[in-house]
Design a protein that fits this description.
mainly beta, 2 domains, 4-stranded mixed sheet, 3-stranded parallel sheet, 11 strands, globular
Length: 108
Amino acid sequence: MANTIKLKRSAVSGKAPAVGDLQLGELALNTYDGKLYTKKDNGTASIVEIGAGGGGGGASGPILQAAYVISENVTLATNYNGLSLTSVEVSSGYAVEVPSGATWTILA
């Protein structure tokens, strides 16, 4: 079964989608601000900015590249989110920690 990712776009500065604008599995991209959003539902639906805070490998929620190899310890900050495209490899001896309130989505 193929997975389909739906993308919605906006070019309005500061515009983020509302909960009702996205279904689970859909992404929203603000092309003006360069921000990516998704909907999460862990009992209460909410919109989260993927990679909020930026920074590759840092604590504030990296947006990781395709076939990304992690060669350092990575801890997402609470309430920040990461996105990886395709596979992610964690080098021997290193760890990735996703604390409560954070998410790391891997699109393969």
